[in-house]
From TrEMBL:
Membrane-spanning ranges: 28-50, 78-101, 145-168, 174-194, 206-225, 237-258, 331-349, 369-388, 400-421, 427-447, 499-522
Chain intervals for the UniProt region annotation (Disordered): 280-299
Bilayer disposition of the protein: Multi-pass membrane protein
Residue ranges constituting the NFD4 C-terminal domain according to the UniProt record: 331-528
Family: Belongs to the major facilitator superfamily. Phosphate:H(+) symporter (TC 2.A.1.9) family.
Keyword 4Fe-4S in record: no
GO cellular component: membrane
UniProt-listed InterPro entries: MFS_trans_sf, NFD4_C, Nodulin-like
UniProt-recorded name of the protein: Nodulin-like domain-containing protein
Compartments it resides in: Membrane
Length: 557
């Protein structure tokens, strides 16, 4: 449905209202809403903060905390879009009630369910915001996924500043904030984020680079603020100032998007003789079923469903069916590489604080390691998005090869922990945080490029299941028990080196994942040599203007 409003018949005030509606219904505001939702979707990254509160209050041992961490990772990756907000609130609200003693102490299996439900918020954001944004702006998917996942990486630090300003240094109140804030953001913008017709936006790359600069400034501010809060005692007023500045930077991309929408608005008026047109609704294109054609094809085709799934798959970049993609060799290789890479990285991150304590670092230094992990996790996300996109467009550098290089870099960070020397843990924190952050945007982007966007939401959720599976195998079943046995022996002997054998195992597993990804590089080499965005470049540069013009003609005829 399109409404057309003549500028000559409206007042300036009405024109302002029409422009506001134009902005709110545009794809840039939809992307801004995605930024906000993703910035509130990283509650899982605060698990290390409130898990100690759960452990102390409910009397859980470390093995139970590790088990809860697994269900936290599981909840991140197996969510349901339509009930994401409700599940987020229910899960974390029940955890908060348990911690403050408002309900009886839950059993371990109940806590596992609570944290799995609560962690669903990140999957809700991925499915609702990230997938929709990729479909709306497919030519810049690398940049966009890097930014969106970057804001998710910063969400833990952002929510920390908010809870310090609102509740003070109270870990129990942090759980309450995690319960209501992501759910509120999702409900506020649930109708804003929607799929639109694929169009080429003017100055698209410039807009993303402006957002990149804003996000880097926000990340650096959060890093400096976090380090200062650990070094000196902040007053409540100082916490309020820090939270205010954080929110101001978080909302800054909206100014960039309004500027772009204003330019589009003025161009629409200029191209249509001063007529300001507002596109009220731009629904996604729907496929019109053609039953007669399908019936003919079903009768004349000699290929069975089995052969179509295994032997008659589309070319890379075309739309695969769900079974065609999941049962393909490329997806299997990608799953193995992700299981090894992300599984090892998650295990290393979960054990970083324990390793710092084993090396004799004070608690303040260990917290600085975790801060370095967080900030470089962000830089890894935006690096893998923007740099891989730039290398792909300019030099046809395969994104799969970028994944191989990131996994090899992760091996170096793990080996620095396995064979420690003075200062090695600082360097390892940077490398592991960077490589960990870089892997997820690459996974999401590669899936969208190789298997198409038709079933993207299902396929990327299936692909990232390798992350919690790898974490469970490597953290719960392999390195956790191995570390505990070695740590006990080391404490008795007052030696430390044998406690780091698990990280040698993780380095070997990650190297195996890197070698597996090289097979995918070879298989997709020809695909990445071509123009993978060719089908999206056939869209006009100013579709909104063209659409509005055609509707003006229809209304006057």
């Amino acid at each position: 449905m399109v409404e057309t409003q003549g500028a000559g018949s409206t007042t300036k005030g009405d024109g302002g209202v029409q422009f506001v509606l134009h902005v709110l219904r545009g794809r840039w505001f939809s992307l801004f809403a995605s930024f906000l939702i993703m910035s509130g979707a990283g509650a899982t990254y605060l698990f290390g903060v409130y898990s100690q509160e759960i452990k102390n209050t409910l009397g859980y041992d470390q093995i139970t905390i590790v088990l809860l961490g697994f269900f936290k990772d599981l909840g991140v990756n197996v969510g349901v879009l339509s009930v994401g907000a409700a599940m987020n609130f229910t899960g974390y609200f029940m955890i908060w009630l348990s911690v403050i003693g408002k309900i009886s102490k839950p059993k371990v299996w109940q806590m596992c369910i609570y944290i799995c439900l609560g962690a669903n918020s990140q999957n809700f954001a991925n499915t609702g915001a990230l997938v929709t944004s990729v479909r709306n702006l497919p030519e810049s998917r690398g940049n966009m996924i890097g930014l969106l996942k970057g804001f998710t990486g910063l969400s833990g630090a952002i929510m920390t500043q908010l809870y310090l300003a609102v509740y003070g240094n109270d870990a129990q109140s942090l759980i309450l904030l995690i319960a209501w804030m992501p759910a509120a953001l999702s409900l506020i913008f649930v109708y804003t984020i929607r799929q639109m017709k694929v169009v080429r936006q003017p100055n698209q790359q410039t807009v993303f680079f402006h957002c990149l600069l804003i996000s880097i400034v926000l990340a650096l501010f959060l890093m400096v603020t976090t380090l200062l809060e650990k070094a000196i005692s902040f007053s409540h007023a100082a916490y309020v100032v820090a939270a205010t500045v954080s929110c101001a930077l978080l909302f800054s991309p909206l100014l960039v998007f309004i500027r772009e929408e204003l330019a589009i608005w003025r161009q629409m008026k200029q191209n249509n003789g001063g007529v300001a047109n507002t596109i009220v609704e731009n629904p996604p294109p729907t496929e019109i079923p053609q039953p007669q054609k399908d019936q003919v094809n079903s009768k004349t085709s000699t290929s069975s469903c089995f052969s179509k799934i295994f032997f008659e798959k589309p070319a890379s970049g075309e739309d695969y069916s769900i079974l065609q993609a999941l049962l393909s060799t490329d997806m299997l290789i990608l799953f193995v590489a992700t299981l090894c890479g992300l599984g090892s990285s998650l295990t290393a991150v979960d054990n970083m604080a324990r390793i710092g304590g084993s090396l004799g670092y004070p608690k303040t230094t260990v917290k600085s390691f975790l801060s370095l992990l967080s900030i470089w996790n962000f830089f890894g996300r935006i690096f893998s998005g923007f740099v891989s996109e730039s290398l792909l467009v300019r030099y046809k550098f395969p994104r799969t090869l970028m994944m191989t290089l990131i996994l090899l870099l992760s091996c170096i960070g793990l080996l620095l922990i396995a064979f420690p020397f003075p200062g090695s843990l600082h360097v390892a924190s940077i490398i592991i945080g960077f490589s960990f952050g870089a892997q997820m945007p690459l996974l999401f982007t590669i899936i969208s490029e190789l298997f198409g966007l038709k079933y993207y939401s299902t396929l990327f959720n299936c692909g990232q299941l390798a992350s919690p599976l790898g974490s469970y195998i490597l953290n719960v079943k392999v390195t956790g028990p191995l570390y505990d046995r070695k740590a006990l022996k080391d404490l008795k002997k007052k030696g430390l080196t044998r406690a780091f054998l698990p990280f040698i195992v993780l380095a070997c597993v990650t190297f195996f994942g890197a070698m597996a990804s090289l097979i995918l590089v070879a298989r997709t080499r020809q695909f990445y040599k071509g123009d993978i965005y060719k089908k999206f470049k056939q869209q006009p540069n100013t579709p909104d203007t063209k659409m509005a013009s055609s509707n003006t003609t229809n209304n006057t005829s």
